[in-house]
Amino acid sequence: MSIPAQFNAKEAEQKWYNYWMENDYFSSKPDHRTPYTIVIPPPNVTGVLHMGHMLNNTIQDVLIRRARLKGFNACWVPGTDHASIATEAKVVAKLKSEGINKSDLTREEFLKHAYDWTDKYGGTILEQLKQLGCSCDWSRTKFTMDEDMSASVIKSFVDLYKKGVIYRGYRMVNWDPEAKTTLSDEEVIFEERQGKLYYIKYQIEGSEEFLTVATTRPETIFGDSAICINPNDERFTHLKGKKAIVPICGRVVPIIEDDYVDVEFGTGCLKVTPAHDVNDKELGNKHNLEIIGIFNEDASLNSYGLHYQGKDRFVVRDEAAKELEALGALAKVENHINKVGTSERTKAVIEPRLSDQWFLKMDTLAKPALKAVLETEEIKLYPNRYNNTYRHWLENIRDWNISRQLWWGQQIPAYFFGDGKEDFVVAETIEEALKLAQEKTSNYQLQASDLRQDADALDTWFSSWLWPIAVFGGILDPENEDFKYYYPTNDLVTGPDILFFWVARMIFAGYEYTGKKPFNNVYLTGLVRDKQRRKMSKSLGNSPEPLQLIEKFGADGVRVGLLLSASAGNDIMFDEELCNNGKSFANKIWNAFRLIKGWEVAEIVQPESSKVAIEWYEAKLQKTLLEIEDHFEKYRLSDALMSIYKLVWDDFCSWFLEMIKPAYQQPIDKATFDKAIEMLEANLKLLHPFMPFLTEEIWQYIAERTPKQALIVAEYPVMTSFDEKLIADFEFASEVIAGIRTIRKEKNISFKDTIDVMVINNENSSTHFDSIILKLGNVVVLEYISEAIEGALTFRVKANEYFIPVSGTIDVAAEIEKLKEELKYTQGFLRSVQGKLSNEKFVSGAPPQVIDNERKKEADALSKIATIEQSLKSLR
């Protein structure tokens, strides 16, 4: 089988992915082996591959392929999330472009459009992951709106409601006026923004006196229920028990007292709007204030806004400020920076809003999750610096608002039958609901048609928090074979930005429903940034198209480029040059393989140098295996790849192949050739998780293989003991070879010309690698001597002195002159350094590292002078 001159990445990627799929290597079924399980962080169903996905899924694929090679029953479950807010927004926008309003459709009609949308666009990202080489068990692909997944969510809701953990309450919630739904606290991102502080004058009822209040939101005056002063603020003692008139709307409101008011902020007075601020709501409850909601669901003003009715809140902010100024009720306006809550999904500014919603109590759920990570360490976060972040969130957690005013998602299984707030039941089906409603009311004449199911859907995260359990059917049937075999899973790979949205909540669900952790380890990747440390975004134009990168550099090149800089938890400074490095590495391996396969093999005696080379490389391979194992245990995948990279590029390609390479037009002995192939195959096994396509291509070229002998299911190299001294001895020998090559280059001695080398072995160094020194230095004689040789070129390796007799190969006189010049320069440099070190002011004032650096310069200069002087002595 002829081997192409170059590796064709595109052809190999298509060929071997199809081959892996045809032979069903990715699928997993319970058997006698130990399982290794990963569940994919489900991307949005309508999403497309971006750089974060590339990094996250490459890491998962490395872990799953390595587990497969190590003999585990590797199972990687793929899937997508229905992403209620994001997907519904896209469907609404699409309908709008077609002249259809969501409000004109029934729920069933809208859901048909939503499913049509997901059928058309959903799953695109999973197909793109295949191009990256991801070896998921595609037969297990799940979607959070699949029938069984939805049934799991509904069953969970009903169960938690029966336990009293889910409740319905009238609370202040975060309202997204663009998506027209509530959000949990974790879905609100606070941003510092430049705003204004408006000083508004409220007239005291029955007098000409005014009270000035500072606010950032003048549009909310229409919802004012009171003015609050601090009871200890002597400036306002005379106002106790009086009332104030709200400008524009003319409403008379009480002046109340509460030490909540900060006397230092603004004017020391506070306008109280209980319907639109969490803290104001508490004041309202405490002082029995009227609650006046002034916003529609899109944050335009309702009828309480008088002549501003129907206008957007930000338009009203500007217009009301002008009206206040015209009325003489605006004292002044100042620039003011404050934190503004925005929707994580739509980026809209959040409105606090009072609403009946469903909540999940978090205090009891959080306790086992805290213990598992911070006490027993049943679950480990990598890097562990996220433990503190995790602790802070869980110790300050608030109840989770799990209802959303959306149609795309699992509809809340609550059924209403009356006008009262408690006139509802919770059940998995309407049949069960009817039975419960009849029993609750003692009215057995109730019909199913009398029940109204809650129109809201559940928060997407309430679906995905069950992901590791539900994908194996563990909610609906906890005794099923798959769930008992694969759960708990092994590793979770995700971003720290969803540590609370998803990771912590999966831990809650795991202990609540199974009494077990959902996974052993959480590997938290960093963000992919550009080389200027900017977050990648389309608006900045700094986010490359992943599939174009694969087209340009090959999937293996892109994977290596990403992983070489992907230490756990640290942001990746992405540069396309990294992918080019990955492509170059692939070419290096390909060319090394072609070199080996190009040698003629003969039944001849194995040279001593080849025996030693094989002995050394096997030890080096074992040492690298130990390093790799340590790196993987600590989730340092970047370091693991770098260890393999150095082993293959430096040790295998640059040294081992040079050591065993036969002379020009000469054959290689079969024993050495077979060992070279064996070592190459070991390298391919180590590389396969990182570079699956290239390695499978070379593996299949090496020999005819049956499907059972494919690299993807080969046996990972086994760790054995190795001789550390052998590796250290080679390091010394490599320095000797480097010294010989340097002299050849500097003195223009052709590498084709043989030389002799004499050595004074002051280090008592090993002679084990002498055959390698002879071969790679093209040395005829390597002799150990006790005295220096006159008229020879010299170099040092540690304390050993090496002499190369010149015997007419160089111009001695010219060489002496050159060495004299070099000696003169080095002596001058030494005097300069020693002058600094003898200067007490410099030594006492300079940082320790600067002094250490100068002393190293001194030592290097002294060593170099000794070598030059020895060379001059030899040449004279």
Describe the structure.
With 876 residues, this protein is α/β, with parallel strands linked by helices. Among the domains are: 181-351, Valyl/Leucyl/Isoleucyl-tRNA synthetase, editing domain (Isoleucyl-tRNA Synthetase, domain 2); 748-875, Valyl-tRNA synthetase, C-terminal domain (Helix Hairpins), CATH 1.10.287. Helix content is 44%, strand content 18%. Strands 7, 8, 9, 10, 11, 12 and 13 form a seven-stranded mixed sheet that branches. The chain has a four-stranded antiparallel sheet with strand order 6-5-14-16. α24 (770-776) links the parallel β28 (755-760) and β29. α3 crosses α4, α18 packs parallel to α20 and α19 crosses α23. The protein is elongated.
The percent range for helix content is 40-55%
Instruction: Provide the CATH superfamily of the domain at 181-351.
Output: Valyl/Leucyl/Isoleucyl-tRNA synthetase, editing domain
Rg calculated over all Cα atoms? 37 Å
Q: What is the name of the CATH class of the domain at 181-351?
A: Alpha Beta
Structural class: alpha/beta
CATH 2nd-level architecture of the domain at 181-351: Alpha-Beta Complex
Count of extended strands: 31
CATH topology of the domain at 181-351: Isoleucyl-tRNA Synthetase, domain 2
Average pLDDT across residues? Answer: 92
The share of residues in extended strands comes to 15-25%
Please give the count of helices.
27
How would you sum up the global shape?
elongated
Largest sheet: 7 strands, mixed
Instruction: Kindly report how far apart the N and C termini lie.
Output: 60 Å
- Uncertain stretches: none
